[in-house]
Structures are given as structure tokens and as C-alpha cells.
Amino acid sequence: MKREQALDLLQTYIKNKNTIKHCLASEAVLRALAQKLGEDVEKWGLAGLLHDIDYEKTGGNPKTHGLEAVEILSKQGIDPEIIEAIKLHSEMAEGVPPRSKKFHHALAAGETITGLIIATALIYPDKKLSSVKTKSITKRMKEKAFAASVNRNVIMECEKIGLPIEQFAEISLQAMCGISDVLGL
Asked: Can you tell me the distance from the alpha carbon of 178 to that of 164, in angstroms, rounded to the nearest whole number?
């Protein structure tokens, strides 16, 4: 599936503009990670873009989120590796085995760090990604009360893809800065 088709599909299932922006941010991060790690940029980008396609359908229920996506995406002929990574990105879904591949860890960590980066940008007076420094992100990682819903353990799965948190945060931030106009930040 081409990116434009995937975006249309996402917008069929997701109406909330902030969820769509999160998916676009995740796509940018996954594409940047794939490029850095010598992986398939299109495949990783599609996983980032489509990872929350069932979020509204499941009401964000962590026990079913990701599982409904399997059905939706299978009917569309999406690459089974993308579907598997999307299914596994939600560690609380029922019956989902632990993540085991670089692709799985990259999607989980990459989509999760977007929330921390956005929360960090929003505390700056101009609320712009361009004002955020990597050091600020890593500092906020240690502040459990800041963006408390962001799972730091999932972000730290970046180490399982061979990237220390500082480098992972920098790649993610730069990827998101590249689409800051789309994100409105």
C-alpha cells in the first residue's frame, strides 16, 4: 500500500485530529529510525502511520488496542510484518506475546517518545519543536510526574535497537521537527 492510500485509510478510521497528528509524528520517527538503522523506510513508515488505526474503534482500551488493527489491515493486504509490529506495539493487549524484533521495539519506542517530545514542546513559551533540545527530552524522561502517562520503559526499548536514549531522542526530535508545520508545533 502506498503512503497516500494508508493516510486515507487512517482518516477513514480516525477522526480526532490529534490522534492523526500523533500517527504522522510516529511515521516521521519510524522513517528516520529505519534510515538510521538501514531498514526499510517505507515499511517502518507505514507501521508508524497506521499503528493507532483501531484507537477510536477500541475506545483506546489497552486490552483490545492493536488487535482490531489486525483485522482492519489484513483486509487491506498490508504486509504481515507491519501488522505484527502494530499488534505488538500495545503491550497490554490480551494474548499478545512480548516484542522480539528490532522492528517491534522501534515502533513501540518510537510512537511512545512522540508524546514526551510534544509535552516538552508545550511547556516552552512558543510551543515549538524547534525550541526543544535533546537534553530537555532526556531530562524529562527522569521526571516521572511530567507527562506521567508516557511509559518510559517502552521508550527505553530504544536500547534494544542499538540506540542510546540521547541518540534516539535526537533522531526522534529531528524527525518531528521536519514535519512541525503539519503538527502545528
From this structure: 21
Q: Tally Cβ neighbours within 10 Å of residue 77.
A: 8
All three cell numbers of 179? 514535519
Which residues, including other chains, have CB under 8 Å from residue 172's CB and lie 6 or more apart? 29, 32, 33, 110, 113, 114, 117, 137
- Give the span between the Cα atoms of 175 and 80, in whole angstroms: 26
Contacts 24+ apart (CB under 8 A), 43-46: 43/79, 43/81, 43/82, 43/103, 44/103, 44/106, 44/107, 45/3, 46/1, 46/3, 46/6, 46/78, 46/79, 46/82
pTM higher than 0.85, yes or no?
Answer: yes
Grid-cell match 504481515, residue found? 80
Which of 167, 153, 62 lies closest to 105, judged by CA? 153
CATH number at residue 165: 1.10.3210
Closest CA to 84 of 107, 61, 64: 107
pLDDT tens, position by position, 85-104: 999 998 777 777 788 899 99
The range of the structural domain enclosing residue 156 comes to 3-183
